[in-house]
Amino acid sequence: MAGLHSRLTTFLLLLLSALPFIAAAAPSSGCGKGPTLYNGQTVTTNINGKSRRYTVRLPDNYNQNNPYRLIFLWHPLGSSMQKIIQGEDPNRGGVLPYYGLPPLDTSKSAIYVVPDGLNAGWANQNGEDVSFFDNILQTVSDGLCIDTNLVFSTGFSYGGGMSFSLACSRANKVRAVAVISGAQLSGCAGGNDPVAYYAQHGTSDSVLNVAMGRQLRDRFVRNNGCQPANGEVQPGSGGRSTRVEYQGCQQGKDVVWVVHGGDHNPSQRDPGQNDPFAPRNTWEFFSRFN
């Protein structure tokens, strides 16, 4: 009987280790209350004496008793909050609306926040864009029902740099990031704590060399306790994206790296595919954390 109990315990532990990472929900102070923010609202706030704004997108049939994921979407340099909301032509290197994530969110599990950058970017001078993030997170947590354990961030180029900056400085607030063709552009205060990390980059990137993306990735390979890869993976035939799942990472601190043969493009497609792969890869990664 003791041997059977031991084998059953071992089986259950192996089963649990194979499941997606699941943590207890942490409902925000806005749960159970009528919302103070509404769908499509543009909110204006003041950070370091500067007027800042952002937009909130709520799921259909928002339920004030259901803690939602909160996903921050940061635009690239020269873009804007409005362009992320409306989207641009993906055939000309533009992003899909809301980085293409809402259509993949079939269970309507997420609230989206789209901030607007100063001078159309995220220079984060004296940490002001991280302070902007803090302000948004507090306001949304108070005004809506979110799971504070499920806060995510993604963006392309400068927006990827801003997501990386949050992974460095707000590891206690951000569950996972998805950095699309990013570099260290918005600083990296702290930068020593583990955060689940997805990144993709093109080996022909003419704006931010792929080495810059690898440098960001390697920081979180170390932080997350993952086993380093044996050499750099290369794109597949025709520039097709190649995906690496790093092994040995701390539980719930996954690192995924996708490399492709393309240029500086948030809407890169694999040969023969109609849809960009960044949205589905990002959503799959964020969905691991329930």
From TrEMBL:
<dbReference type="GO" id="GO:0045493">
    <property type="term" value="P:xylan catabolic process"/>
</dbReference>
<keyword id="KW-0624">Polysaccharide degradation</keyword>
<dbReference type="GO" id="GO:0005576">
    <property type="term" value="C:extracellular region"/>
</dbReference>
<keyword id="KW-0964">Secreted</keyword>
<feature type="signal peptide">
    <location>
        <begin position="1"/>
        <end position="24"/>
    </location>
</feature>
<protein>
    <recommendedName>
        <fullName>feruloyl esterase</fullName>
        <ecNumber>3.1.1.73</ecNumber>
    </recommendedName>
</protein>
<dbReference type="GO" id="GO:0030600">
    <property type="term" value="F:feruloyl esterase activity"/>
</dbReference>
<dbReference type="InterPro" id="IPR043595">
    <property type="entry name" value="FaeB/C/D"/>
</dbReference>
<dbReference type="InterPro" id="IPR029058">
    <property type="entry name" value="AB_hydrolase_fold"/>
</dbReference>
<keyword id="KW-0732">Signal</keyword>
<feature type="region of interest" description="Disordered">
    <location>
        <begin position="261"/>
        <end position="280"/>
    </location>
</feature>
<keyword id="KW-0119">Carbohydrate metabolism</keyword>
<keyword id="KW-0378">Hydrolase</keyword>
<keyword id="KW-0858">Xylan degradation</keyword>
